[in-house]
Design a protein that fits this description.
The complex is a heterodimer. Chain A is mainly α. Chain A has 13 helices and two strands; from the N terminus they run αβααααααααααααβ. In chain B, α2 runs antiparallel to α9 and α3 runs parallel beside α4. Chain B folds into two domains: 143 residues, D-Maltodextrin-Binding Protein, domain 2 (3-Layer(aba) Sandwich); 102 residues, Periplasmic binding protein-like II (D-Maltodextrin-Binding Protein, domain 2, 3-Layer(aba) Sandwich). Classes of the chains: A mainly alpha, B alpha/beta.
Chain lengths: 277, 257
Amino acid sequence: MSRSRRRGRRVSLPVPVLALAVVAVVFFALPLVGLLWRAPWSNAWAYLTEEHALTALRLSLICSLWATLLSVVFGVPLAWLLARVEFPGRGVVRALCTLSMVLPPVVGGVALFFALGRRGLVGQYLDRWFDFRLPFTTAGVVVAQTFVAMPFLVITVEAALRQLDQRVEDASRTLGASRWYTFRRVTLPAIRPAFVAGAVLAWARALGEFGATITFAGNFPGTTQTMPLAVYLALETNPEQAIVLALLLIAISFAVLVGLRDRWFGRSDRSAVTVLA
Amino acid sequence: MRRPSRLLIASVALLGSLGAACGSHDADTAASATGDVTVFAAASLTAAFTEIGDAFMVEYPESKVTFNFAASSELVTQIGEGAPADVFASADKGNMIKLADAGNNATEPQVFATNLLEIMVGPGNPKGITGIADLADENLVVVVCAPEVPCGTYAAQIFESAGVTVTPKSLEQNVKAVVGKVTLGEADAGIVYRTDVTAAGDKAAGVEIPAATNVVAEYPIAVTKEAANTQGAQAFIDFVNSEQGQKILASYGFLAP
């Protein structure tokens, strides 16, 4: 596929641009190298296979996947609304729905308490009428993660929908396709790279979520202690184990990010770079 | 700020060491302190030490105290990684021992205050909690600190010596998080320090834990090995131990060692 299309294409970069880019790469790589450098390799396997580490990892994966699913289910329609429907106060709604990206996560967690906690705006009725509580539950973790992760999907998908030539969709409709068919066969394939990127970003954000989770859902092994929480607490007593757990989390995210890029966006790393001297 | 001349610093240092050599003064009137004093202190000392710092700078106008408040364990890590600290004040002996084991203290750690643990409940104690035994109730939302942090270790010790099995809903990363959950009304009870109940004012109430099952948390303080201002560091420690410093600590609920 795109592999052959890009092969052999040579890109030239001015030296200053290349130099700055290399600085940026080093900036990101160095902390990782630092972790690898300090990692206690001889004990790594023992730390990783400790039961509470595995429990935290399992919970992290389950919760972050649920958060991604919820982000897609609610986020794509939201992106659609923001991209396609002109309504008064659209800018305000957009800002509101992406606020959690800039909000300190701990504040987000407290805000979730005020909304969905036992004494919260809505939470008190969930408690009173249905005997249902979100804080200190696995569902609470998913809610906290979705709250901080969904905006990443929304802004990515919205941008793609805006750039999409609507005449293609119009053509599909005039040819007799239903709205759902047009969405599935015309719109979705066109925005697929953005959709996947948004979903992956949301998933990665959910996987690394710490502040909102520990504030809103608390920290209990097996129910709400996700990997980042386990790493943070391990830092208190056993920094070596914290490093190993952090590296595992990084390795998983890294594998997914690299794997998905190749699979969905086409390989771009084959293009050779030459320096203009 | 005007920088004091080198000569001045040298002469002050000389005077200070002469004074120390003679041992002629008590803790209340320690040698004068100048320059920046950087104090790394446990988060639970935030309010009390901020006030002590202000009083110290009134006493020694030539000096400037800067604080770094965080979990004791975090501070030990930071100092170990070369963070510029002159004084380290820990919320427990364990972390001070960790610092000393790494050879990062310059003076013998000294206990300057103690703290007790208490059950924190909502204002007016709506659930009518009278003691540790009540916390075994499965219908209560009880939160405590994680066993990795001192307040969690203490809570576990208290439950054990009281012979009560408590199933907390959450193991928080620090005591302030426990306080937050109780004051927000999301938890019915939490194990916190006496000083936290004092600080919460009317947002929470405290239920005392009898001395037989309670734990005394000791707060040690020491000058760090890499201290840039040992003179100022020692003066600060002396000030914490002085009558004035102890009075400030007491007003926040700390007890004398």
